[in-house]
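From the shared-data thread, chain only:
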Amino acid sequence: MNNEEYIELINMYINKDIDKETFYDKLVEITNSLKTPLKEFYIINAYLYRYCNVPSNLKEFLYDYSLPILSSTDITESSKNKIKCALMNAYTSDYSYEMAEKYAIELLNANISDIIILRDLANYYTKTRRYKLAESLYNIVINAGGRELATRDYQKFINVVNKKQKDYLPADYENKVKYLKFLTSLNIQFDDVIHKKQPEKIKVDNYPIPVEHTMFDFDSFVAFDVETTGIDTTRDSITEIAAIKVLNGQIIEEKEFLFQELVHPYKRTIPPSVEKLTGITNEMVKDAPRIWEVFPKFVDFIGDSIMLGYNCMSFDSKFLVRAGRLSNIIIENEYFDVLHMAKQYKSQLSCDNMKLVSVGETLGIKNPQAHRALADAITTAKVYLALKKLKPVSPVNDIVDLKDEGNDILN
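Structure, as tokens:
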């Protein structure tokens, strides 16, 4: 530690007067005459000035040589504690929480006065949600003159405790699972929801175009509806999906025949105008499952039934295609669009417009909760069955004007 060349090199690194590659090469050269583990210790130690962290490309080096370093009689206990702190930080960043905990406990029991190590310990206990212990460690650091050293991390801690900032949670699905499993082993209570990892998306060109069934020749089907963040079928996202099974023309509103799920919108938020229209708020879908978690259950529910919707060929089916792509699931069910059917009975309906609510009311069918997916799906099923009782007309593919009026957000 008294080697002048070594100290000069460290100071150059601290002051950023030397690039990392040159620094490392020079460091290896300076320590080359030392024996293991002193040589490896000084290489690791050089990186542990204000933070007990090594670069990611040196983690394996740290892991490989930590045991001989910690077993050496030529290295002081205070220097070994810096290595233990580096190990704690490295294992935490690798989501190996059990190993990180091992070194955290050893440091906690070592009666340490090094404020850098104490600050890193406080960070570790904040990250693992043991806030009382973290607070006591931060107080020791601050009272020992380390306020400037701990300011940034301590402020983050205060924000978390005061609920101005969310508790730490890893970004990746696998690491979230590891982290929450570790918290469970510590008997720490948490409300975090783990969402299934998104599967590989199906490319647009590889997904089949929805097929429309045009004959009124069925009484068993699944009526469905989706609510969304907006009307752009390429950018907006599903916020709710619902369906009802109808068997032989019988609508049975019981649990086994119903499907309804809120969905956390994919890369979108719900605009205030749509919140007001549907009653589905961003708060309601904040912790809702992702579409790739909901869609497989929806596909199981519909089976191979005809999928009956209102304005579904220009709207809902396109959102389901996108949902299928995001979920890596292809659905090949035929769609039946009740809007196309209703247009053929327009002269008999005498309603001002062809929106679902208007057509339903003309037929004596009241929608109890318009713009919510399940109510719209049930209303669509009732409208289809009521239209079938009217005077027969030509099938959809014989009608010239099939121009859609509006979209699902407005229906």
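The beta strands are 211-212, 221-228, 238-247, 250-251, 258-262, 307-309, 334-337.
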